Write a sequence for this structure.
């Protein structure tokens, strides 16, 4: 047995394990002498006996003292891997996530540890074969006579200078594995196994953009930003930077210079992007530059296969990968000696997780950088008000890039008043005359266009003019969207799907009308107007196939596509030099949200989408179609007046005490029984007011904007607080003492982004 460190009760070592079983507390186990569990350490993933079953667990402490009777302490059954799957730093981060976001520890660990590891996946191995013993002429002839298939394999292998993959060799020759096995048993062929890494985007270096491997000439703004960030890296202390650069100002080059500095000094880097669609472009750029210096870049996001995720995680754990690029979950990458974290497009709502634990990738990045004394760079052309406020209040350093690289001009912006367009067209119009004319002009000149509409589908709602009936989802309080490709009505919230209708289900009238338009409708209109144009649509309906978005964006870059129509996945970050026209079909959509951030999101969206135009040598133009062209966010965005928008928006937030001046904790209750739901949320509100009324301002309860979702009614409360770290533990403690029926479910959402 292994001697106990600081433990006198017996010779076993004792560990605290958190089981993945819904218990939500640690249990004590002992480490037996078996080889499969001797290497257990803090962060190890283990199998443990739990009542009458086996469960998965994570070791949180080793060599602990315990008051549990020895006879009741059971041994760990197995350690899944030789290395701990989480570092000490990540375990500390997990505890902060639990406390700040009000999440269960199990949900936090499941968010951190990939399912591939929790399922016990192992490395992929391939078997290789090579001739071990050369046969004499007599022995060879005997083999050909008795076992011609074995002789055929022997003939093939004796002309190979290096080991050959067994499966490919047998398939090529049409020979079964038994022939090979016989030769191995006789010592004529030698077999060996080698691990094969499943590398995501391993083809991107060959397909990467034509990026020079030498450092380009930096602008004055880029030079100052690089010097400032590198100085922070030299200090080896926690320091957040906000890199505020106009679209096309070269933020990626600043990131690259900082990455090189961090890696060359022995550190590692996490690079977060807001959308999976941006990952191939970013990976291509980084690999083109970094792999020439022997620096491996791995990819991390939800679209990878389980094998790719397993191999990437192991490469990071072992310190083989020094740079990881990925979506928000990449913030949990187990990087060794983490020195730099980059959050590109830090303002994007996509960094907020919509399921437990409801963390914000940007904020977790800053906290993780603080834990490991690293530098965190937040970059955006339209920074969030929270990050800008942190420059003034929390010591973030501000680095500003005011001009585009190579003195490229910002695009010329036109605003089309769609109310006037409707009067001219004498009916519904989706694409204005100006936008259509400019698209035709680009097509004739061999240039490319992007059309953005943040609403997928063909038509958005069915209305009966006779009785006023609107076709709604039977499970959610939203209208169904018509998809013309398969003549179906779908709910984009719960996935409900049904056949389209030609008569009103309520009064049987045949005068049903369809309102609104989505990307599918835009695609059809443009294709009819320009039949020779090569048009592709990118949205959640068309991107079901793995890597399809990569293929489309690669074709668009090569000029195989003239017009790209899409939703938010094409709205930011993408860099296509031949795109000279961008059209925003309905810039008002985000203005009408029941959200205090509606103005900010509209401003950010218009600026970001506009920034896709004119990024090469050709000048760009932007056409913004709006039914509210005089609205402040659209006018500020048209002028590129960030300071003006910031001053007006901040004043509004200050007046109503909204973030960034206070934090919000949203508490959502749901149940299929509406009356019971209202009763319990009312009782909970009274309890909070009684015990925490001096610390948090409570607003509500009220029906959620999306009152019914997947057959559940939803009500919510808002808690305004100046200190989440102080208020959330008190709310959690109070909630643990508040009894409800089993059919009442609730969830806390700290710093919510989606208020529906």
């Amino acid at each position: 047995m292994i001697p106990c460190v600081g433990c006198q009760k017996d010779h076993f070592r004792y560990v605290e394990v958190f089981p993945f079983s819904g218990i939500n507390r640690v249990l004590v186990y002992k480490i037996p002498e078996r080889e499969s569990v001797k290497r257990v350490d803090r962060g190890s993933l283990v199998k443990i006996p739990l009542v009458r079953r086996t469960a998965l667990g994570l070791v949180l402490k080793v060599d602990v003292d315990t008051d549990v009777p020895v006879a009741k302490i059971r041994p760990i059954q197995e350690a899944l891997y030789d290395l701990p799957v989480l570092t000490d730093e990540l375990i500390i981060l997990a505890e902060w996530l639990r406390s700040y976001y009000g999440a269960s520890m199990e949900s936090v660990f499941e968010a951190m540890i990939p399912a591939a590891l929790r399922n016990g996946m192992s490395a992929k191995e391939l078997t290789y074969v090579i001739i071990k013993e050369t046969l004499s002429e007599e022995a060879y002839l005997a083999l050909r006579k008795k076992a011609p298939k074995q002789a055929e394999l022997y003939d093939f292998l004796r002309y190979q200078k290096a080991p050959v993959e067994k499966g490919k060799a047998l398939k090529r020759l049409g020979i079964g594995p038994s022939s090979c096995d016989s030769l191995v048993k006789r010592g004529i062929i030698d077999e060996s196994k080698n691990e094969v890494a499943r590398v995501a985007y391993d083809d991107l270096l060959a397909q990467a953009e034509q990026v020079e491997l030498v450092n380009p000439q930096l602008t004055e703004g880029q030079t100052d930003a690089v010097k400032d960030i590198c100085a922070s890296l030299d200090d080896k202390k926690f320091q957040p930077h906000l890199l505020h650069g106009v679209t096309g100002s070269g933020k990626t080059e600043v990131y690259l210079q900082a990455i090189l500095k961090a890696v060359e000094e022995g550190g590692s880097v996490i690079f977060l992007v807001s959308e999976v669609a941006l990952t191939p472009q970013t990976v291509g750029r980084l690999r083109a530059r970094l792999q020439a210096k022997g620096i491996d870049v791995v990819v991390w996001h939800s679209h990878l296969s389980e094998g790719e995720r397993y191999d990437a995680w192991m490469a990071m754990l072992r310190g083989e990968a020094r740079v990881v690029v990925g979506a928000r979950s990449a913030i949990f990458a187990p990087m060794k000696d983490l020195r730099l974290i980059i959050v590109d497009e830090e303002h994007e709502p996509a960094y907020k997780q919509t399921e437990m634990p409801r963390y914000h990738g940007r904020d977790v990045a800053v906290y993780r950088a603080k834990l490991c004394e690293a530098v965190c760079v937040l970059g955006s052309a339209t920074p969030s008000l929270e990050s800008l406020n942190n420059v003034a209040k929390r010591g973030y350093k501000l680095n500003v890039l005011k001009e585009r690289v190579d003195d490229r001009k910002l695009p010329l912006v036109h605003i089309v008043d769609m109310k006037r367009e409707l009067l001219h067209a004498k009916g519904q119009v989706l694409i204005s005359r100006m936008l259509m004319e400019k698209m035709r002009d680009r097509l004739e000149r061999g240039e490319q266009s992007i059309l953005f509409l943040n609403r997928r589908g063909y038509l958005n709602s069915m209305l009966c003019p006779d009785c006023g009936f609107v076709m709604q989802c039977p499970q959610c309080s939203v209208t169904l969207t018509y998809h013309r490709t398969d003549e179906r009505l779908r709910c984009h919230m719960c996935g409900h799907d049904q056949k389209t209708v030609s008569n009103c289900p309520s009064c049987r009238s045949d005068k049903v009308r369809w309102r609104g338009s989505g990307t599918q409708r835009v695609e059809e209109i443009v294709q009819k107007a320009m039949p020779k144009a090569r048009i592709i649509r990118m949205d959640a309906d068309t991107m079901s196939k793995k890597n399809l978005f990569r293929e489309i964006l690669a074709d668009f870059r090569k000029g195989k596509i003239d017009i790209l129509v899409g939703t938010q996945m094409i709205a930011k970050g993408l860099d296509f030099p031949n795109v000279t026209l961008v059209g925003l079909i309905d810039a008002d959509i985000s203005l009408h949200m029941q959200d205090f951030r509606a103005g900010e999101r509209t401003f950010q969206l218009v600026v970001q989408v506009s920034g896709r135009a004119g990024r090469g040598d050709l000048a760009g133009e932007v056409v913004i179609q709006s039914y509210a062209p005089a609205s402040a966010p659209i006018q500020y965005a048209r002028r590129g007046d960030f300071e003006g928008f910031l001053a007006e928006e901040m004043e509004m937030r200050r007046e109503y005490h909204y973030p960034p001046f206070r934090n919000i904790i949203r508490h959502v209750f749901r149940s299929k029984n509406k009356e019971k739901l209202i009763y319990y949320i009312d009782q909970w509100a009274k309890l909070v007011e009684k015990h925490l009324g001096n610390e948090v301002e409570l607003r509500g309860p009220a029906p959620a904007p999306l009152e019914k979702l997947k057959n559940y009614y939803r009500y919510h409360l808002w808690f305004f607080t100046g200190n989440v770290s102080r208020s959330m533990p008190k709310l959690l403690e109070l909630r643990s003492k508040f009894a409800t029926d089993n059919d009442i479910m609730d969830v806390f959402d700290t710093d919510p982004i989606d208020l529906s």
Observations:
- Residues 1-9, 204-213 have pLDDT under 50 and may be disordered.
- The longest helix spans residues 674-692.
